[in-house]
Amino acid sequence: EAAVTQSPRNKVAVTGGKVTLSCNQTNNHNNMYWYRQDTGHGLRLIHYSYGAGSTEKGDIPDGYKASRPSQENFSLILELATPSQTSVYFCASGWVNQDTQYFGPGTRLLVL
Amino acid sequence: QQKVQQSPESLSVPEGGMASLNCTSSDRNFQYFWWYRQHSGEGPKALMSIFSDGDKKEGRFTAHLNKASLHVSLHIRDSQPSDSALYFCAALSGGSNAKLTFGKGTKLSVKS
Q1: For the residues B85-102, what does the mean pLDDT come to?
Q2: Measured by CB atoms within 10 angstroms of the end CB, which terminus of chain B is less buried, N or C?
Q3: Cα–Cα distance between B88 and B47 in angstroms, integer?
Q4: Chain segment B54-83, per-residue pLDDT in tens
Q5: How many Å apart are CA B97 and CA B92, to the nearest integer?
Q6: Is the torsion defined by CA of A93, A39, B2, B7 positive or negative?
Q7: Distances in whole angstroms, Cα of residue B17 to Cα of each of B22, B40, B47
Q8: Which of A3, A18, A1, A4 has the alpha carbon at shortest distance from A74?
Q9: Stretch A56-63: mean pLDDT
Q10: CA torsion A64→B33→B38→A71, rounded to 10°?
Q11: Residue among B100, B104, B107 with most chain A CBs within 10 A, to mutate
């Protein structure tokens, strides 16, 4: 079973502050993804990566940056957090686009 | 317009009953489909994928794909309380830059 871990699991941030969400996978998957989940919207893709050093914009990238410093790690960065970014964030990994994605347990972010 | 639409939004079935979930896409480029399941407080987990027209059976779960009508369904026979969860349909087009698109989900409750 593929293993994807996320930290922190819960985070409270202030408006205008910087937030970094971290994701680690030990399966040597090429692709990694960041989604947010909101009631009534399902899962929406924020950023993704095809490998170390690469990041691509997903469907809702505004207000977010991503960093893939290694095969195992993929971070999501909110430079200036806003209350609208309050959500549950999921990281996922997979071999290629046509492969099943394996999700982490999620990070619950509250921006006050 | 949501590219992947799921129905119903919520569904309640008795233990041992049959649950039927539906998914329709509006993009004829979609070629690959998944069903993901998410238990409360956890990340989504892939149930099964279906890429060819027809039925695919895995234990109590059967997926059906009709590419001509862009319709995918998931049928769960002998439903168990542990099947209570949020079920997502996800679709992917072909091509190297394809991104997975999720529906909003169907909440299934199995009553014992």
Answers
A1: 88
A2: N
A3: 10
A4: 999 999 999 999 999 999 999 999 999 999
A5: 10
A6: positive
A7: 17, 21, 19
A8: A4
A9: 96
A10: -50
A11: B100
